[in-house]
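dumping this here so i dont lose it again. seq + smiles for nicotinamide-adenine-dinucleotide
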Amino acid sequence: MLGTGSWGTTFAKILADGGADVYMWARRPEAAAAIDREHRNAEYLPGVTLPANLHATSDLKAAITGAAVVFIAVPSQALRDNLTAIKPLLGRDTIVVSLMKGVEKQTGLRMSQVIEQCLEIEPERVAVASGPNLAMEIAKEQPTAAVVSSISLETAQEVALLARNRYFRTFVNTDVIGTEFGGVLKNLIAVAIGIVDGVGYGENTKASIITRGLVEMTDFAVAQGAQAETLSGLAGLGDLIATCQSPLSRNNTAGKLLGQGYSLAAVVKQMQQTAEGLASVAPVLEIAAASGVEMPIVQQVKRVIEGTMDPRDIAPHLTTASDEPQSEHGLGETGEITPLGGGSVKPGSGLWRRLFGSR
Ligand SMILES: NC(=O)c1ccc[n+]([C@@H]2O[C@H](COP(=O)([O-])OP(=O)(O)OC[C@H]3O[C@@H](n4cnc5c(N)ncnc54)[C@H](O)[C@@H]3O)[C@@H](O)[C@H]2O)c1
Ligand SMILES: O=P(O)(O)OC[C@H](O)CO
């Protein structure tokens, strides 16, 4: 396990409690010693006792050599540098699993893509894990589900079997794009929820943003090649719910500070841990623009982050730039609205006017 922050340590505990012998690599020798000898990571998981079959070292070679599976939980923007360091140490068949929920700012690549590119390994040897997984709850052994995804079902199953114990159940899928983007995009919606929370808006506003946010997430991910149902699963809706409603979420917390009027610089200074959403906004919007996907909520998050929108203005702008009444379920290629239950309503028709008035 590379990364001894809150998720790396918690996921290492999941694996160790599932019966695996786990070796963590910590950058600081004192952090490695505390985990290895005292079975504690007080900085990130105060009050949690780590299992005896979870070891830690600051020697990267010792941590990686002989590993059947390498899990990575460092901040997304630090991934590439870490991969360069582990590349010469990796076994020929080692599986590499991303636990991260970000995209690389410079390239817009997903974490699994950075891993494949930088390590020059086959995509079948790469997996990602995602889901509604707030670290501290799992560290306290609260029952939780997750999903492991790889284009190789065999790889996904192998990893899922390792990441399974009495309090953690792991499902599998082969939709890596949907699984990764679910994790990336729910962070952005959680920042929006934090913002309106910070402003003082209530549950209607938040439910509206969560629901419309899921539409944005799905539209975006499907345009990149994901399956829509993945976004309704653990890595999409599941994680969206957990992250948007929990004060444990760093993205939600960062949003709340922005909503209370703090600048981005002040928020970053206050955050002790990684809030991936802040770095993902720009690359996600670039990809959205290139693929013609509208992301009105994420656009507004960007404007609040850069200080060009008052956080109090975020809620009334939940629709697209157009003034036209918009179908909840999107417009088909013909521009016709598709209501629930099939059929369609032609813009300007009698039924259209009855439903939406003269506009
Ligand atoms: N915390 C959670 O609940 C949770 C759950 C699921 C996924 N994740 C994802 O896991 C990833 C890591 O998040 P986290 O919560 O563990 O973050 P964290 O801030 O708690 O820990 C990050 C860790 O990475 C280390 N680190 C920082 N810069 C580094 C660098 N340049 N090289 C190597 N290590 C470096 C830090 O020392 C720390 O050990 C993120 O992508 C996050 O979205 C987090
Ligand atoms: O604390 P956050 O906002 O990074 O969210 C943590 C996990 O991704 C929740 O599944």
